[in-house]
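Dear support,

Our group has been running a series of protein-ligand predictions, and this particular one with zinc ion is the one our PI (initials K.S.) wants archived with full inputs and outputs. We had some confusion internally about which version of the output was final, so please treat the block below as the authoritative record. The input we submitted was:
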Amino acid sequence: MKVPYSWLQQILRSLPGPEAVAQLLTAQGLEVEEVSRLGQGLAGAMVARAEEVSQLTPRLWRVVLSTGRGEAICVTGAPNVHPGAIVPYAPPGSVLPDGRTLGLAEFHGQVSQGMLLSADEIGIGPDHDGILLLPQDAPLGQDLTEYLGLPEVVFDVALTPSFAQHCQNILGVARELAAALGLPLPSGAKPWQPATTGQVPTVTADPSLCPLYLGARLVRGDERPTPLYVQRMLWAAGMRPLIPVVDLTNYVMLEMGQPLHPFALGRLAGGIAVRSARPGEEIETLDGVVRVLAEGDIVIADREGPVALAGMMGSARAEVSADTAEVFLEAALFRPGAIASAMRRLGLRSEAAQRFAHGLPGSLPARAMRRMAELLPEIGWQMAPGAVQAGQEPQPPGPIDVDPLYVQGLLGIDLGPEEQVHALAMLGFTAERKGARLAVTPPYWRIDVAEPWDVAEEVLRSVGIDRLPETLPPLAPRVAEPPLYAFGVEALAAFEAGGYRDALSYSLCDPGELLLLGRPAEVEIANPLSGDMQALRTTLWQGLLQAVRHNLARGRQEIALCEAGRVFHRKGDEVAEEERIALVLSGTRVPFGRFDAESVDFFSLKGDVEAALGRLRIGGLSFVPSADPALHPGRQAEVLSGDVKLGVLGELHPAVAARLDIGQRVWLAELSSAALLEVRTTPQATALPRFPALIRDLAVVVDQAVPYGRLRQVLRAALGEWLIAETLFDVFTGPPVPDGKKSLALRLTLQSAERTLTEADAEAALARALRALGEQCGAQRR
Amino acid sequence: MAGSSVEELRESALAALAAATDLEGIQAARTAWLGRKGPIVDALRSIKDVAPEERRSLGLALNQLRDEIEATLGERERRLEEEAMSLRLAQERLDVTLPGRPRAVGGPHPLRMAEAELVHVLREIGFSVAQGPEVESEHLNFEALNIPADHPAREMQDTFYLSDLPGLLLRTHTSPVQVRAMREHAPNPLRVICPGRVYRRDDDVTHSPVFHQIEGLAVGEGIGMHHLKATLYEFARRLFGADVRLRLRPSYFPFTEPSAELDVGCPFCGGKGCRVCKGTGFIEVLGSGMVHPHVLREGGYDPARCTGFAFGLGIERTAMLHYGIDDVRLLYTSDLRFLSQFQGSEA
Ligand SMILES: [Zn+2]
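Confirmed final output from the archive:
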């Protein structure tokens, strides 16, 4: 909300400077997000009077000005300057807020000495349709910044929902500032007490939607322009002065927080009803939009239908215009929930709606009426005697029963009951001591304070949050953490140590891509932002493959990424979340350079997984050919530790790669974090070998279809605990190895924990191994 | 053999040694002159044929000669080895400015780095990690946190709902984990933090539809707002440095009352005011407050006996502040040019 410093000054009289005020407001909870200075930098402009106006071209006028000290001639493109108008004039040499320095300019042979200024050019408002017309009594020749009180300092205050109810108006902000400064609180206008007879339309109101409706008749006399101070405040608040009577209703709304609605009385047909909209009922609001209403939206209707969307915006039919002579003025309370939901559904966030949506004090409509009655004569209007009222003013509940010890304990500030009473009084609350307790009554403008904790908050705001001492809380035993959290961090680090960078993807993705990866979406978003964020991911691969595309498109060839996160599965009416860790590898390990850029393959990824799981103390790994639809059917494996399935790894299926527009081979792995944690072991030290090891090489020829893993299994079974290690160092096909066969060469390390092995032991062991390999795998020694 | 023949032997030996200019020659000369079949051993062997009164001096002379030959050869050998070593060292000289053998450098994501630091600091001051689901019940995400259906805060947090799963949504904050932790531990005192992913229907330079928060909660008897202040200040000083300027400011959250926000002195301008802090000299880092009695009751604590405080902050925002990142979306594109800025570089 925009809060002009000068308005606060007008209400509270003496104030410290704008910076100090900004700090005080922020400390009260009204955060000043930005301080702007309207008209800052304007220099040399003055007040002048247009003496003669003549048309130069269809769109240019020549104006002869008197400045009180002499004459000047200006050319302007604004059509609203008439002889006798008082205007802001910037002579040659003056400087505008945007930094322009004015000089002489020539238009169609006419020299213009400087220019006439619009509100926009002065820097105070958005209106650039015409020259700013000043009041007739403005002294000619006076410096414009002096006359307009520039620069106008405006605070942009962020209103939290708790303040939106009582500080969405200048008086509310002024009260907070007064409390901070220890000044008496401005109470605002007293309630209006009209005579209840007069020529006013009759009103019926549905009390569940509109508990109170006040109406009055405004009559135009000798109309005068909107006072300059009102215009200035409207500009500063970001509103545009329009028609004097409308400007005043806006001014009162900004000042007090009560939205008022003026109807052109002559255009209302019969009495008024405040009622729920009928489903499908339509209204064209002032902004020219035809809105389709729903049951529960509130309308103001006359005999011919809705004339306003209550509390939000009027319609063109009963709009006040420059020639309106009689106005029906509405000051009402509408049900906040109804306004809030209509505001959300219709996307109509008008100034009025934003105030009604937070609820208003019961006596505010009557106070606003009285304030209007006070101000109307300034524009030559009067409030006619007589008024109409539907409903009753809601009464505040009784005092709040508060234990001062509760307040003291909750805040941790040493504050006795007397101090609390005083602190509350500073904010307009009355607190009476009832024995050891307090009976606290909020001021009329605070309808949001109802519970002891609300009162504690007010006490804190009043004494100032800086009064809080700094005391560390007493020790409490730490509770056990879910082990998966720390393990997830550790597992990522194990892959990072192997050269993988940690990636982050959205967990919302395109269900089509999940389907393509053979992992169809199980949970979809009812109100997605876009189609590519419509499903909860069922795999981390989707995000990693997107990262591959992103990096390839930027010429990056060395891709090694890991990601840890949750995937989502549907379990009946519930959703199961699973922590996973995934890898993607593509291109080369390191960039082109003096050393070989090792290109990566299936075994790079497999080696990385083995190494990282080794770091995590996960052993007993086996890799079993698998059938994952996202992967190359001949280049993938399920990863197991013992019997526990950890996940899968392999090459992205070339057809899927093509569909995803990835032009190079990509290797993927995805592991379940919970499974990894389950099989992780505590390392056990064993005695170092005491007897020497024997190294023997063994080469066999075997059918190509026999997997190495099978040979290894047979070998291990045949050699038992003597086999310390087997290293495959050559795999060979082609002549002289017969077709359909492959030759495998292994280096075996044999060692006994009990004695030194002899040549004979080694020979016997090799013979045993060959026999087993021959019988179980059809292998022959080469 | 007489003294003169020892002298002759010495001269011919020195002449022969002079010809030995490489290590092989030296070795050959050593074998030839000092070996078991060499002239000196011969002479020593034949010493018994000499007159007994000459034997002693002859033996002495021969031994001297042997030592002299050995010393000469040894000296020459040492010099040759030294020369060979300096030659090798000269030949092996490297251009140490050539690039090192590149290794694939991996490392954590800046967001994870920020999360790890936050968790580390908070664990040090007595909090334990708790976790909860990202798909949350509407009740725990809103009602249990004192945000009824028509509450304006529901509008502040535009929510993703799930198809055919009524009552479920993607949590809009980590605060429901507070309630879950309370339900698990009530009525015991509790200090937990809940880092995790949250979701809001928002997408621009400063908002991402998916982001991370960390939530802190302390509940027990006699917990007051002075404890909150000390905890937050301790946390902020450990995170931003002992001399950071701090400011607690009244604020509003539906699940806490009173509520306060913590601001730290703007690190970009030192408090003088700049574009980042919009001229205020402070940057907002977290929201906090005393746990609302309704929320305590939802968590299974009796608000008449127990009180608590809670605080929460965005991890993205912390990472952006810490590492000078200006677009939140950079955190989610996995752009390796961006990620490599955080640990080493790859050649
Ligand atoms: Zn700054």
